[in-house]
Structure to design on (292 residues):
């Protein structure tokens, strides 16, 4: 009997040790597998991150070149250049006319108005905005004024024009940047091709909307809903307009552009895919020297 008990004790002891060994080995195996999987996961994450970085780098390299290739189709053979020290109004007018003709050749205006040309549509939009300026003073006095400013562009231009402008901006995204530069110079510098600077009335209208985008909740809120590139470029040209208004003694609202310069310089310097980044930075640096 005693011998049987000893045998049973030994058997249970061996079984217990076997179970303990199995448990320890299983725990070690589980930890090892988990560590291996975690290492593999981290490795794949690092590979994905490197690939994303490489893809972004290639996009930055290819994007501007693709847009540059298409510029001749949109602005004619005398296309905008990356570095233009001075504004040649004859050249700018040629580019603007070519751009409007390019838009005429697309299907955008057909559903809106078969007989309307792009230049006519553009001038119609400008005249509507000029005749109905936003509220740049006392915007926060009451909720009604705030709401009117937030919905200003929609109220003035209407749904159809807004949809058409958005469609053009979306489909012509690769050339939006050079188009903004050409249109700004054509309107604000070259007097819409008349060979002179814009009259005070036109500059005043541009100034009102520059203040709207720079200094009001409605204007700034609108830009926050736009693509970062469009937002930065709108602010850039708004600052250019206020600078022109200062030179012409038309800054009636006393807008101080200095607080905007550093922020915009930083944003543009870090914005990827800009065709004319260096041109913007050079101009902003000149404005900083002028006003500081």
């Amino acid at each position: 009997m005693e011998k049987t008990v000893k045998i049973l004790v030994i058997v249970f002891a061996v079984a217990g040790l076997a179970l303990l060994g199995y448990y320890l080995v299983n725990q070690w195996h589980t930890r090892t597998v988990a560590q291996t999987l975690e290492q593999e996961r981290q490795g794949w994450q690092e590979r994905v991150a490197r690939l994303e970085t490489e893809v972004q780098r290639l996009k930055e390299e290819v994007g501007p070149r693709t847009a540059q290739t298409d510029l001749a189709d949109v602005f004619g053979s005398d296309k905008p250049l990356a570095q233009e020290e001075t504004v040649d109004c004859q050249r700018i007018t040629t580019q603007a006319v070519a751009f409007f003709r390019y838009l005429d050749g697309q299907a955008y205006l057909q559903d809106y108005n078969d007989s309307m040309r792009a230049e006519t549509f553009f001038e119609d939009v400008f005249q509507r905005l000029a005749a109905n300026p936003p509220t740049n003073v006392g915007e926060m006095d009451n909720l009604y004024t705030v709401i009117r400013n937030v919905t200003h562009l929609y109220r003035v231009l209407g749904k159809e024009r807004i949809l058409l402008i958005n469609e053009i901006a979306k489909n012509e995204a690769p050339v939006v940047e050079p188009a903004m530069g050409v249109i700004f110079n054509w309107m604000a510098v070259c007097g819409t091709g008349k060979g002179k600077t814009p009259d005070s009335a036109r500059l005043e209208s541009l100034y009102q909307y520059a203040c709207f985008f720079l200094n009001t909740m409605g204007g700034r809120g609108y830009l926050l809903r736009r693509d970062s590139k469009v937002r930065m470029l709108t602010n850039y040209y708004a600052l250019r307009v206020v600078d022109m208004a200062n030179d012409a003694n038309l800054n009636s609202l006393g807008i101080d552009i200095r607080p905007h310069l550093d922020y915009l310089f930083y944003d543009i310097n870090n914005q990827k895919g800009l065709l004319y980044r260096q041109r913007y930075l050079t101009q902003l640096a000149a404005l900083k020297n002028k006003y500081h």
Notes: DSSP finds twelve helices and no strands in the chain. The chain has two domains: 1-75, 84-291. Confidence is low (pLDDT under 50) at residues 61-69. The longest helix spans residues 2-75.
